[in-house]
Amino acid sequence: MEDLRIGVIGLGLRANLAVAAHRPGHGSVVAAVADTDEAVRARVPERFEGARAVADHRTLLDDPGIEAVIVATPDGTHEAIARAALSAGKPTYLEKPLGITVEQCNAILRAGYESGTWLYVGHNMRHMGVVRLMRDLIARGDIGEPKTVWVRHFVSYGGDYYFKDWHADRRRTTGLLLQKAAHAIDVVH
Ligand SMILES: NC(=O)c1ccc[n+]([C@@H]2O[C@H](COP(=O)([O-])OP(=O)(O)OC[C@H]3O[C@@H](n4cnc5c(N)ncnc54)[C@H](O)[C@@H]3O)[C@@H](O)[C@H]2O)c1
To answer: Which residue range is the domain that position 44 belongs to?
Structure first.
């Protein structure tokens, strides 16, 4: 079986998704990366042998050799990039959130529907080990009937890191309720 050739759009903090998907000889390989940051592109050959690095996601999407894409760019870019990927017929994994407004989300879903292309959105936390363990503890009755749920979400590197880039700009994220509480709400579920 030939490896599925994946194109990655946006190789920042979420690069671990691309690293996990890069399994030469075992089903999938990162064959191209599109990132607007020149420094990120410069490191592509050492991270993914043989992968092509381009600045514009449209160049990647035009490549018939790319069979599927991972989109992990800042939230406010998702609509344009996801719509382009779906319209190009590339099965698309979009790192959450889908979009930053309801209109954007609808536009992406419409593009997926009209093109008949698979769209996957990574937004849940319920399958994480720690969350499943909490669920098991409750199901076993170890703590009795829960009366309330309180989720505290720590950003590993602290607020300095988190609020000094695009995350701090509501025009690009809508705000913390979407950016972070999306995870918390799934944990509560
Ligand atoms: N970091 C996390 O723990 C985390 C967790 C869950 C979801 N997410 C989501 O993943 C996505 C990416 O987050 P991140 O933390 O990796 O961000 P990041 O800022 O670290 O990385 C984004 C990358 O995309 C590139 N980029 C920006 N605009 C681009 C464009 N138009 N075309 C191509 N490349 C572009 C940037 O140069 C950068 O390398 C966001 O939607 C975020 O909400 C991140």
So the answer is: 4-122
